[in-house]
Specification:
Blueprint (H helix, E strand, L loop, with lengths): L3 H4 L1 H8 L2 H7 L5 H19 L11 H10 L9 H11 L3 H22 L15 H9 L7 H23 L18
Helix pairs in contact: 2-9, 4-5, 4-6, 6-9, 7-8, 7-9
Length: 187
């Protein structure tokens, strides 16, 4: 069995190179576009955190709410891919969410520290009270046999990035927008 990082590296590279993610990294998102992204993230973290996290410093929902409060935005709709992922996460028990905690929370701890400099808000989402302890709480549970589930999480994330890019390309970032979507084959 491959180590987890190696077994998930291909999907990780695809997610990192998604056009929306690249625009965010380059600081090319408007406040409205970043707000749409944050609404998707808040829903995923809300769903995961309802089941619990290995360390209280991991909880992100209130931090995301602080970022959203800084942005003069209209209400944003959840994208269909986000709803689909949240529905999937809701079917998992706590142990089943651990690979998704590994995926999303470590991404914010590491890549997010670079991303924070490029977003049009303070970036509260990327701040952790006890980052080292929080990271170690995930690492202590991490298992190589999570690879399939982490890759499934990457598939969902890739679909969300695709829909975010479609939404901003079409100028559709608010609730009133008719956000076009397609089934990206994520199950």
């Amino acid at each position: 069995m491959l180590p987890l990082k190696e077994a998930t590296s291909e999907k990780h590279k695809i997610a990192e190179r998604m056009p929306f993610n690249v625009k965010m990294f380059r600081g090319q998102l408007s406040k409205e576009e970043y707000g749409l992204y944050l609404v998707q993230q808040r829903e995923l973290f809300r769903t995961i955190e309802a089941k619990g996290t290995p360390h209280s410093s991991l909880n992100r929902v209130s931090a995301i709410d602080k970022d959203l409060a800084e942005l003069p935005l209209s209400d944003h709709a959840l994208l269909p891919s986000t709803r689909h992922y949240a529905e999937y996460l809701n079917k998992l028990d706590y142990d089943g969410t651990l690979p998704h905690i590994y995926l999303h929370y470590l991404a914010i701890m590491f890549g997010g520290q670079i991303m924070k400099k490029s977003v049009p808000s303070t970036g509260h989402m990327y701040d952790f009270d006890n980052m080292q302890e929080a990271m170690l709480s995930i690492r202590a549970l991490q298992r190589d046999d999570w690879a399939e589930e982490v890759n499934k999480g990457f598939d969902f994330a890739i679909s969300i990035f695709q829909e975010l890019d479609e939404a901003i390309s079409n100028g559709q970032t608010s609730d009133s927008a008719d956000i076009k979507t397609q089934d990206h084959g994520v199950a």
